[in-house]
Design a protein that fits this description.
alpha/beta, globular
Length: 174
């Protein structure tokens, strides 16, 4: 077994989580990842490797981007991976990664409000994801709003700005 297999890797792909306000352009944009600052704020004692895969809004993602994220997961030695992803197409990317049938625990998370802005949910969602990735069986999950969902049993409710479970056909979620 590889010495890194039980360590944690966080892959960043962009999304609201990592956006900052660009005063010159007057818009939210990507510069450097906010993740090192966020990890420091969480006071997490685990060894964590952070790798940037993409810096893109998830609304701009296409199949090639999703495959790149899947390949990054497959190529990592770690068996526990968190993917920071934009919330608008997180479910679609999680389903692409699920189809790879990796024997790893992969948890997607993101934020509705950028870390750089007041009242962001980024730290809470990351903290939940760090806990979840340690406790879950291998598979692909989405961790948002204090809940964990299997990648094939979740959707983003755009009206309520939160994630909610959806049943597999023929089953129900309590």
């Amino acid at each position: 077994m590889d010495k890194h297999s039980d360590e944690l890797c966080i892959l960043t792909t962009g999304g609201t989580f990592d956006k900052i306000y660009d005063e010159i352009r007057g818009e939210l944009t990507f510069r450097r990842s906010q993740l090192p600052k966020i990890i420091k704020a969480t006071r997490c004692a685990l060894p964590i490797t952070v790798k940037r895969v993409l810096a893109i809004d998830s609304l701009d993602m296409n199949t090639t981007h999703r495959q790149k994220i899947g390949k990054a997961c497959a190529n990592r030695n770690e068996n526990k991976i968190i993917i920071i992803h934009g919330t608008d197409s997180m479910v679609e990317t999680a389903q692409v990664v699920t189809q790879l049938h990796l024997k790893k625990t992969i948890v997607f998370t993101g934020a509705m409000i950028p870390f750089a802005l007041e009242n962001s949910d980024a730290i809470f969602n990351l903290g939940c994801a760090i806990t979840a990735v340690q406790l879950l069986e291998p598979g692909v999950y989405i961790c948002m709003n204090g809940q964990v969902f299997a990648s094939n049993q979740v959707r983003k409710n755009h009206k309520l700005a939160l994630f909610e479970g959806v049943p597999l056909s023929g089953t129900s979620i309590p």
